[in-house]
Amino acid sequence: MILTYLSSYKLFLSPIYVTPKPTATSLAQLYGQNLSSQIFIESSVNIEPSLPFLEDTNSTLYLRVQQFQFTINQPKLCDGIYGNQEKAIVVVCSAISNFLLRQAVRTTWSSEATTHGNFSSVRVVFLLGMSTDNKTEQLVHSESVKYSDVIQANFIDSYKNLTLKSALMLRWVTEFCNSVNILVKIDDDTYLNLEKLMKKIRSSHPSNSLKIHGLTFGRSRPVRKQNHKWFVSVKEFPYRHYPEYASGPMYFMPVEAARRLYGVVETTRYISMEDVFVTGLCAEKAGIKRAKVAGIKTLGSGSFRLHACAFSRELAIHHITYRMLITRWKYFQLVKSKCKSY
Questions:
Q1: Nearest alpha-carbon partner for 76 in 207, 155, 180
Q2: Nearest to 212 by CA among 255, 173, 172, 167
Q3: What's phi and psi for 153, nearest 5 deg?
Q4: Which key words tag this protein in UniProt (predicted)?
Q5: Residue 259: which of 167, 164, 171, 166 has the closest Cα?
């Protein structure tokens, strides 16, 4: 029987007692034949294999984030952020093959987040997984050496591993960003208006309250169609509604909230929807509220169009290509003085 909303995710988040680390030597042994098609952490001869989950007696999966290493790291990046008030680290969750998008981000909106830029209290870093292609790995290494803004962990970079990527983001901020007040999470195909972001942060003082700020959804239903991008099985999440959560393309929170989220990541039952897992289930368990923020738009959704002054008016714009980002940014530089009063 499917439980009602109020009781469902409360039970889903109830305290757990887990067994010791499994000793299975194969993924089939670890997950069982019926779960073999749902293994989300892939292995490669080039990457040291590790078991990503701890399984309890009810076959429920829990992430084991500590088993992964940052093979490329920027441990001192947050220490170089200057500012007397709110200091922010923007973590761009990027697909490893999206070299052009990362370069477009560097030459557009994040170019102002430097020591001598307009937003010296902000830094931007890209978080990646690994590839089974050696050439791609070599290119990422060269990119990291050139720009010093890449973090990489030893898991296969794929859409199904986004929950793990977001959990590793929480771990990285917890371990290496003690001097920063605000964490901003954003996808690489999302434009971020740094001026509007910092105005919102300075006016609302989010570091004083444990809230996740973003485009929030309440009582949304899991997608049960197997071929859908957002499919979640009844076994994975057997309830009618998700708890309130902030949409994954862009959200921000105080670093203290990120630390508390990280504190419950390994004891919160795994779900493949990364935004539901982090900002919904983990947030509910950690006692962190969600706050709706205006100005987060998605191209192709509703009536929104990328007009000349959108880069000035909106906080974030999702589903933007690298060509669109570069060309529209250049044009925006020419007209932005007129957009101030738009």
A1: 180
A2: 255
A3: -115, 160
A4: Glycosyltransferase, Golgi apparatus, Membrane, Signal-anchor, Transferase, Transmembrane, Transmembrane helix
A5: 171
pLDDT in tens, 70-97: 999 999 999 988 877 789 999 999 999 9
For residue 238, count other CB atoms closer than 10 A to its CB: 15
Task: Indicate the helix (H) or strand (E) that contains 229.
Answer: none
Residues 208-217 have a mean pLDDT of 92
Amino acid at 25: T
Q: 3-class SS at 85?
A: coil
Instruction: Give 79-102 as a DSSP string.
Output: GG---SS--EEEEEE--TT-HHHH
Give the Cα-Cα-Cα angle 325, 153, 288 (nearest 5 degrees). Answer: 75
Q: How far apart are CA 220 and CA 140, in angstroms?
A: 37
DSSP single-letter state for residue 252: E
Q: Are 122 and 108 in contact (CB under 8 A)?
A: no
Region of residue 284 (phi > 0: left; psi between -120 and 50: alpha; otherwise: beta) = alpha
Angle between helix 255-265 and 162-176 (nearest 10): 120
Residue type, 127: L
| 8 A C-beta contact, residue 189 and residue 195 | no
β-strand pairing of 122-130 with 289-292 = unpaired
Structure tokens at 262: 């990280």
pTM for the model? 0.84
**pLDDT for 328-342, tens place per residue?**
999 999 998 888 644
Domain ranges of the chain: 70-339
Q: Which residues, 6 or more positions from 169, have their beta carbon under 8 angstroms from its beta carbon?
A: 91, 93, 127, 183, 185
Q: At what angle do helices 99-107 and 134-147 cross, to 10 degrees?
A: 10
